[in-house]
Amino acid sequence: MKILSCKQQREADAYTISHESILSINLMEKAASLITDAICRRWDKARRMIVFAGSGNNGGDALAVARMLFLKHYPVEVVFFNVTGKISEECLTNIRRLKECGFANYTEVSSQFDPPKLTRNDVVIDGLFGAGLNKPLSGGFAAVVQYINASQSTVVSIDTPSGLMGEDNTYNVRQNIIQADLTLTIQLPKLSFLFAENEEYVGKWEVLDIGISQEFMKNVTTPYYITEEAEVRSFIRPYKKFTHKGMRGHGLLIAGSYGMGGAAVMAAQACMRSGIGRLTVHTPVCNHNLLQTLVPQATVEDDLHERFFAEPTDLDNYQAIAIGPGLGQEEITAKTTIEQLDSCYVPTVLDADALNNLSVYRNFLNRIPKQAILTPHIKELERLVGRCSNSYERLNKAKELSSYLQCYIVLKGAWTTIITPEGNCYFNPTGNPGMATGGSGDVLTGILLALLAQGYPQEAACRLGVYVHGLAGDIACERQGMMSMNASDIIEALPGAWKQLTETK
Fold it and tell me: Band of the pLDDT at 505, cuts 50, 70, 90?
């Protein structure tokens, strides 16, 4: 699924109107019908609907929704803001249609605003401003937003919460943004919906398909996508009858230190559950028995040091390598990690302490092999690129780093984002908050190593690996509940996740 800019979404509407013989007002009517259905599915006629409508097309949507709810016998009240005297044509049409159907509970505000009393039982429908907003709300509209936010009413925003911009909210005034419980967005989500700091404004969101031109969607270019299951399924390579373990790759995992052997174990177990033919784990001597016991399918190669990674190893026999889970940040380990990178001529995954060690010696970042996969969480990324004020800035800095290093970055979070050296960003839809627990990232590293060892290209490995990791997390959540699940539960759910993706529908 493509994510378009607000400008591109307006262009999509215009293209649809001009090329598919549909009037703008009819497209609005279709959107309003879908919004009304979504509201009616959630709330019955015991709830009062209070519609706050602006004078643009977002307000036109809201007025059409008010009419449709009224005709379905919902108690509806409309507050229409006409403070500039400029009203869009579609908005005017919907004012007329609303009055023609006998609706009387209508207040037009041009200067002084006497707000209706909002109660816990009310549903506020926010149609003040759409996604085309390009500056923070101020003055009277800011006061209206703050009034709505201070109420105990349920708030439904049309297309986007009023005051929230579609992409960059760096310089926005956050107290002047509607805090919606539900956002019913038209055709496609906005980029800003995928950023953690905007969750309190967007609430839960649902995409409503109004039938924008498929020709336009096919041809329009964007760097932002949400990965879909059908795409992921297409990446998977089926095994042939005469496949043997040598054809499924030999991977090397450099992981573990004293007290953190569990990270090596979880990465190794996830790797063995993701199709790899052979796995060797290079780890300090102290973790030898642990790995031999808990991952008997893997070969254990002892480092010369009892407790830490202190000796680079030869890579001649491997198709892929992963470095980092539980590695520790001893000075000798940091230097050895950098030394190991000099000989990494096979596909490489860098995670956790491999990244933390590089952040201490940032002048050695150019040692990272091109096309490597970096898997930082937010804090690990900021150790590499510096502090960021918000998710939008963080995403752009990650894109810059990816381009500079010519590497893939898997930025972990609620919408884990795969960033390619070309600047494309793929947001992953699977996963849940129960995965926010120690060891979850180690599991992902193991999955990625397995896919690279089997010969998957880096982009496909990232998108497939992140998707199946989240899917396994969703299966684990169903089994264990969000509160109790841990990283081991994700590993146990991997067979089910892979089976689900490889089954013929």
Answer: low
